[in-house]
Amino acid sequence: MSADALLPLLKSTFGFDAFRGRQAEVVDRVMAGERTLAVMPTGAGKSLTYQLPAVALDGCVVVVSPLIALMHDQLRGARAAGISAASLTSVDADFAETRQAYRDGQLDLLYIAPERATGEGFRALMEARTPALFAIDEAHCVSEWGHDFRPDYRLLRPLLDAYPAVPRLALTATADRHTREDILVQLGIPAEGLVLAGFDRPNIRYRVAPRVSPAKQLTDFIVANPGPGIVYCPTRDGTERMAAKLAAATGRPVAAYHAGLDPERRARVQHDFVASEDGIVTATVAFGMGIDKPDVRFVAHAGLPKSIESYYQETGRAGRDGDPAEALMLWGADDFARARMRLGELPEARMAGERARLNALGALVETVECRRALLLRHFGENPPERCGNCDTCLDPPKQLDATVLAQKLLSA
Ligand code: ADP
Ligand code: MG
Questions:
Q1: What is the separation, in whole angstroms, between the first and last Cα of the chain?
Q2: Atom 19 of ligand 1: nearest residue by CA position
Q3: What separation in angstroms does the CA of 28 have from each of 4, 33, 53?
Q4: How remote is the CA of residue 42 from the centroid of ligand 2, in Å?
Q5: Helicase ATP-binding domain location, by residue (predicted)?
Q6: Beta 36-39 vs 61-64: how paired, if at all?
Q7: What's the gap in Å between 370 CA and the centre of ligand 2?
Q8: Which own/partner contact pairs does 141-145 have at CB distance under 8 Å and 24+ positions apart?
């Protein structure tokens, strides 16, 4: 069945009138049983490309997903759409029932963590009933080139290969050319199986500036941006200190969020932020995944992000409603110095990837050319030379500034 033929099901199950971006193409491939790697930006709607087949196909779609919290968000969404879905994770108490429901063919969608998917028990379950599709979410985790390598993802291959007739769909938002090629090889997907959707987020205005006086710089930025926003800080302490400073300086509601807070507090901050029209969260990177708030008006970085992929993913939380949004990154030579020190502590195998990642960030902060063009080229696109909606396009830096910046970087 083609994606077009599934339009009525798309409407009745999910309430959507049309496919978005390249969803239809991915669904077409999945329904034709072809192996596919879908690379689409955050918010593009990747989940739908296996959830719709889950409803349309006979049999169960098995989804490998790396984070329990993320899985449970997805599960809630799928169940709300009336899909018969369950998960097998260490925190699911209804383990036996879920397995039985799978064996009895009652499930359309089964979420599982990679370390469980590669275990004996799960193999036996797959023996009892062949799945309709393997979906591997956050597939960059399979690659050492990716920014979030998970060794467990490497063990998926034997499971997939045990069922060569079952189609596989790998999904990720963040993969540069290297990582993409690696995912294809690692998961046994042919090169023509790559569906690469546009990464451009034209409504986000990118700005990058040297960090001089961060509280003051961020205050000015926030005052100019009355809507809700996120300020990413490099450390847990940093989120708390920055929250206090920004609350005092701007009079806006500001809450800190990091993994060291108790779960109730975290849930509360997240809940209040989603409901708020002017709230700000100062957060570590622990904040953001699985938060569905389309009207985030700005994302700021008080320090260098981990990689271009992380930067893209984090700034991508701004302006998902398509209205104008701002991204500001403040960086210092000390950020690069620290990152370089950490390089030295890494195992040999990861060093090259991490160094390339750091160099790419260096190129982003020191470029005098269009920031968007640099970002998009990083993801393998071929963008126009100037976007007209980033700091370097709007206010072209003088060559002199760039030289000074470059010297700062090199001397760090
Ligand atoms: P991703 O995993 O690519 O980041 P999600 O699968 O979480 O994105 O989907 C992001 C949002 O887009 C969800 O709120 C989802 O309901 C919505 N969405 C997905 N497909 C469509 C569509 N065809 N039309 C409208 N909204 C869609
Ligand atoms: Mg997703």
A1: 58
A2: 45
A3: 8, 9, 9
A4: 7
A5: 27-193
A6: unpaired
A7: 28
A8: 141/66, 141/114, 142/170, 142/182, 142/183, 142/186, 142/187, 143/175, 143/178, 143/179, 143/182, 143/183, 143/186, 144/182, 144/349, 144/350, 144/353, 145/176, 145/178, 145/179, 145/182, 145/353
In order, the DSSP letters of 359-404 are HHHHHHHH-SS-HHHHHHHHTT----S--SSBHHHHSPPPHHHHHH
Q: Is the CB of 16 under 6 A from ligand 1?
A: yes
Averages of pLDDT over each 10 residues, the chain, 412 residues? 91 90 93 96 89 97 92 92 93 88 97 90 94 97 87 93 97 86 96 90 96 97 97 97 98 97 96 97 90 92 93 92 93 95 88 91 96 91 92 83 61 52
The structure tokens listed for 44 are: 């593009």
151-184 in b/e form (b: 16+ CB < 10 A) is ebbbebeebbeeeeebbbbbbbbbbbeebbbbbb
